[in-house]
Amino acid sequence: MASRGTILLTGGAGFIGSHVAVEVAAAGWTPVILDNFCTSERSVVERVGELLGSPVRCIGADIRDAQAMHAALGSISAHAVIHLAGLKAVGESVEKPELYQDNNVRGTEVLLAAMDRFGVRRMVFSSSCTVYGTPQRLPIDESHPLSAINPYGQTKLDIERMLDRWVDAGPDRHVCSLRYFNPVGAHASALIGESPLGIPNNLMPFVVKVARGELPELGVFGGDWPTPDGTGVRDYIHVVDLARGHVAALERLDSMHHERINLGTGVGASVLEVVHAFERVNGVKVPYAIRPRRAGDAAAAYADPSLADRRLGWRARLGLDEMVRDAWAFANRCG
Ligand code: NAD
Ligand code: WQD
Asked: Of 31, 120, 245, 264, which has the fewest CB atoms closer than 10 Å, so is most exposed?
């Protein structure tokens, strides 16, 4: 089948980008990955190729490097860019706010300038539910007030505003900022998934390491939240559902100026629900202990995903059982 066109995936070797590459290819587009491998490994690109049955083109480059970005965009004729490259560790962003501004915000500026030079006018951007700050009401729809509660969140707000200016600065430009809730899980093949460097910050990779015996127990951050079982509630979304959402956005980009759309399931799960689902589905033990609340956390956050249904014709299909099953299978095969 002839390709429908080339899609450049910045950060395409990462957890989410690798799954997006697979879904983009399945929809008939040709993905090209661009990554500097600061938080990912080159072997991921090979595994995406293995999954697709043919190698995927990969450009090793930093989005902040204008020359490299010009060379990259000049060497392909990109229909659109899916911009996933970014640093995402909240704690690290508090320690190194300048690094986050430089990598995420300035990096996006350089990328947009290169797109301008080569006439690429479509972008799907990896935004985050972090732009809503501490939830004021639930579920969280796209009109919820915005605020940054850490430097990482500030970068997502800054980039969304930069994209507002960019779509207004020239004719026929189209952007969809997808505000992800909590992506977890892995591809059903167990060839690609989430493998953060060092001790994980996020719940699911931490649970996986405890289940494998690599860490002694999970610290549950707070057992006295105003939630049904006292532990924090989040909207976990399977990474394959999330990746499908990017294809849906890509297909409808030309009807958009700059739209912001939540990608979540609309269903909240508590920390203990995640732990118990993990134990039940995978037949393993996840020892845990209740610890003090983590600074900056909220009791509960979950999406109103109805705009994604209306605008993209997209809904999450996979539930918590599939998320914990696939995260575990990946950890045991490739993690
Ligand atoms: P990840 O760390 O696995 O992937 C990010 C990728 O971007 C990595 O491969 C990294 O090497 C690359 N990268 C970073 N800076 C780069 C640069 N300057 N030039 C080129 N490549 C660079 O993270 P992920 O979970 O796949 O996240 C992808 C995007 O989604 C990020 O922008 C993140 O902020 C956003 N996001 C993630 C989550 C989440 O919980 N995973 C939630 C909301 C939004
Ligand atoms: C989930 C729940 C914790 C670890 C983060 C980013 C956010 C967005 C999504 C990128 C909470 C609890 C966690 C642990 C625990 N990412 N927990 N023990 O905080 O909802 O959001 O990822 O844009 O910006 O902040 O996700 O996975 O860290 O935590 O009890 O060891 O698990 O308190 O209730 P979070 P998380």
From this structure: 120
Report the 3 state secondary structure along 8-67: EEECCCCHHHHHHHHHHHHCCCEEEEEECCCCCCCHHHHHHHHHHCCCCEEEECCCCCHH
Residues with CB under 6 A from ligand 2: 88, 90, 128, 130, 182, 201-203, 206, 218-221, 232, 234, 271, 294, 297
Residue whose CA is at the smallest distance from ligand 2 atom 4: 203
Distance between Cα 203 and ligand 2 center (Å) = 6
Tell me: pLDDT of 335 over 80: no
The pLDDT assigned to 197 comes to: 84
> pTM for this one?
0.98
Q: What is the pLDDT of residues 170-183, one digit of tens each?
A: 899 999 999 999 99
How far apart, in Å, are the Cα atoms of 271 and each of 156, 162, 203?
25, 35, 8
The model's confidence at residue 192, banded by pLDDT at 50, 70 and 90, is very high
152 is known as an active-site residue: yes
> What spacing in Å lies between the alpha carbon of 66 and ligand 2's midpoint?
34
Q: What is the pLDDT of residues 69-85, one digit of tens each?
A: 999 999 999 999 999 99
58 close to 21: Cβ distance less than 8 angstroms: no
pLDDT of residue 334: 78
The residue type of 265 is T
Task: Tell me the C-alpha distance between 159 and 67, whole Å.
Answer: 21
Q: What domains are defined for the chain?
A: 6-184+236-264+303-317 (3.40.50.720)
Contact 68, 62 (CB under 8 A): yes
